[in-house]
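Batch job 17 of 40 flagged for manual review because the log was empty.
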Amino acid sequence: MAQPGYPPQPQGPAIDNNMTMSIVAIFLFWPLAIPALINASKVNTLLQQGDYAGAQAAATESKKWSKWALIIGIAWYAIWIIICCGLGGLSALLSSNS
């Protein structure tokens, strides 16, 4: 509701700040998730200031860093699982032959 004497503020499009994806990414690969969280936290502030282009740019950066953190984190854990299972299987194979 607009106050008397002030024109109503136009509402811009809603922009997803990608905060959830950034928080998930922090558990998988935190070095890349930190810039994602920083950019995600800027989105709502920029929207409140009316800087829709800046908010969109921050959201895009947040999404980019989150995706990289997720990709690297999932790949890292997958490699470790393969290595651990491979070594465990090799160990079991060697101990059964003895």
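Reviewer: the log was empty due to a logging misconfiguration, but the result itself is present. The two ends are 81 Å apart (CA to CA). Unflagging and moving on to job 18.
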